[in-house]
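Researcher: Please predict.
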Amino acid sequence: MLPAFSDDGFLPGGIHWAEWSEIASRFAGNSHREALLYGLARAVGCLRMAGCTAVFIDGSFVTQKEHPADFDVCWLVDGVDLGALRKIEPAFFSFNNLRALQKAKFGGELFPAGGAAETTSPFRTFLEFFQTDKLSGLRKGIVGYRPANK
């Protein structure tokens, strides 16, 4: 079960695992959020078909913002058939133009969880980076989901 938001509008620090029904119930509260959820579901479906076993959802989508800008996802690469994923959806490998193709297709951005999110110290992975508020530097929560459960 997803915890309540903290006073700053984020989930408490850590990875909070949820079923798809809970993600939809909690984060699709208006038509804008429903559209983002639809794009997220399409992206997760592609990852599932390629063998992905875990995705981690971040971005303003998993905050209290009424109209979040987008979602950010990092996905566990272990077990994913990258060749199959490239055939299923090449956008997962398109990082040009600030990932414009991913944003246009899905409404959010998708990164390998173990990929380098920073080119300078502290050199965090996307999974680590997503768990820190960019403005305050404080720890925040993200949502974990296992695509096979959809």
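Model: The longest strand covers residues 71-75.
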